Amino acid sequence: MAHPKSEEIVHWLRSTAGVDRGALIHLLECADCRQRAVAELRRQQAESGLADVLCYRRPSVAEEVDDSFADGFSRVYSRALDCAEAEQRQAAALFDELMAHPEPRRDVLARNSDRFRSLALAQRVLEASRDACFEDPRQGARLARLALVLLESADTEFYGHRLVHDLTGRAWSYVGNALRLANDLEGAQKAFATGSAYVEDTNDPLEEAGFLHLLASLRKHQRRFDEAAGLLGRSAELYAEVGDDEKLARVLTSLGSQYLDRGCPGEALQPLHEALRRVDPQADPRTALYIHHNLTLCLTETGRFLEAQRMFLSAQRFYAQFPDRVTRLRARWLEGIIAAGTGQTARAEEIFTGVRADFLAAELSYDAALVGMELAALYARQGRNADLRRLAEDLTPAFFSHRLHRDALAALAFFVQAAQRESASSQVVQRVADYLKSSRLDPSLPFQPLS
Q1: In terms of CB atoms within 10 Å, which of 132, 159, 357, 422 comes out highest?
Q2: What is the pTM of this model?
Q3: How far apart are CA 417 and CA 406, in angstroms?
């Protein structure tokens, strides 16, 4: 069934109208709904008193179901919400305590200490895993595995078999996604295969949609692009079905990014604009940043540089919230592309030169190669053959000392030779740049120089 909104859950708890048996069971079995219900009850505590709501008895429920079920549900649901509220209060402190121990000790405590047998703690660890992946994918994988240890000892009779299974499937998808980000595609495939057995058993569309979204990212890295697009489409349908705009915006962002990576910026615009309409920048500033950044890229790649400039300026508040090195460099790179497209040649040259050096210093050689080609295109359009030759001489030792795949090195060698012969036209530079962008997703693509 569809997930009710948190305010709908509270309204039902306070009402005297009966609800169907399926709705009652859903509220007991769904981790996210129970968590949102507790948060909403806390928020409204000043109005009505949390204890009164938790213990409320509905005289008319017996008209919808038999007396024994109504009485039993009233006791069980009240107890479950009460326990969930207490667990969530304690989860942050338990998480800090667990993280203070050395890593091997954490697993021992998670397996053997009753104090850490908490579903809310497992959810808190999964949240930390998701956040860690952006900076340290291996740490993200370790945290997701720690959550799996916590879930292994969860009391399925108390929490419900399905609820524990759903979170276990989610944990395996987090392991798989973290390993994907760490370029361990084989390990990621095994993790998703393990998690799929849990997801196949779920009746929760949110869990299925989240799993499919992350699996699509793996399929993209495996160059199974059509399959990835299908998974994203199904995930988007599920999020739309339950009315979860926040997560739907993330899936649409991924879909737009996939089109952009495949060299189809026109097709990327529609899902990205739809994502922009649905995202809440206050609740999810990272997704808002991705949407604005990718939309700006789409506009530059379709020659709409003034629109791109306005979009880029509107995104500055999001870039400021994520000042990590890679985000900063990608923003600066995009600024250079816009400067080049709006005729600010000197500014673009300055930006590309600095960003290329920073990418090389960070050992992000592929990004450095792509920025180098932006600079080469700038020189080629101006007929600056001497500068192109110097750039090629500068690029040669830097690029060939880093681990680029064979055809990428061949493409760069083709550019270097053309620059040395002073025949590196805009067409030559564009051919090399386009190849480097395409082969980043598919290194098996052969480089075909101009005939």
Answers
A1: 159
A2: 0.70
A3: 16
